[in-house]
Amino acid sequence: MIDLVVYNPDGREVDSLKVDESAFGTAVRYPLLKQAIVMYHANKRVGTAATKSRSMVAGSSKKLFRQKGTGNARVGNIRTGKRVGGGVTFAKKARDFGKRMPKKQRRLARNSAILAKLRSSKVVVVDGLTFEKPRTKDFVGVLHNLKIDRSCLVTTGQYDENLCKSARNLPRVAVMPVEQLNAGDICSHSKVLFTKEAFLSVLNEDKASED
């Protein structure tokens, strides 16, 4: 069992949770976790780099001059990759680097990432996190109260526009609803800040899947 303290936005302890490691798979599945992180980085690649091959470059396909008797080195047409303005020899083409994983594997990888963060005391749970209006200064104050001074992934139960706007100017902070939570984002940040609602929803989802 892992004892997890629940804080309020002022940084004071208001509650505690007992988390059974079996709810997140008991052990961290490192091979599966690596597979998910590779997929995460691959899916972020744009893959739009492209250059023109010799078939795409404007120019005649006629041989520039006869093969022998001119004293010059033999050449082909003007579009060859050896000449200035010609096509690229091994031209890049737009491609999709995306990878896929089954839904169950993605969920298991996410649970392994959460368990790894729990064991290293990198998970912080806050009782509530709401703002009347977008204000970055207020959000920075909450992070300071919770002693979060490194990169952080904030996970909420539902999409909160005021919270997202309050955090979007911070370079090392990301905000997402719990339904979008994935192993790649968890491992890309030093700490994970859950609202209590979001953390309990993850626990209840895992218990429901086990049943």
Keywords:
211 residues, alpha/beta, Ribosomal Protein L4, Chain: A, 2 domains, six-stranded mixed beta sheet
3D architecture notes:
This protein is an alpha/beta fold and 211 residues long. The chain has two domains: 2-45 and 99-210, Ribosomal protein L4/L1 (Ribosomal Protein L4, Chain: A, 3-Layer(aba) Sandwich), CATH 3.40.1370.10; 46-96, no CATH class. It has six helices and six strands, in the order ββααβαβαβαβα. It has helices at 30-44, 103-119, 136-145, 161-167, 183-188, 196-210, and strands spanning 2-7, 13-19, 123-126, 152-156, 173-177, 191-195. The protein has a six-stranded mixed beta sheet with strand order 2-1-3-6-4-5. α3 (136-145) crosses α4 (161-167). The model has no long low-confidence stretch (mean pLDDT 91).
Reported by name, the CATH topology of the largest domain is: Ribosomal Protein L4, Chain: A
Radius of gyration: 27 Å
| Residue windows where pLDDT falls under 50 for at least 5 positions | none
Mean pLDDT over the residues: 91
Spell out the CATH superfamily of the largest domain: Ribosomal protein L4/L1
Outline the biggest β-sheet.
Answer: 6 strands, mixed
CATH first level of the largest domain: Alpha Beta
Query: Percent of residues in helical segments?
Result: 25-40%
Number of domains: 2
Our count of helices gives 6
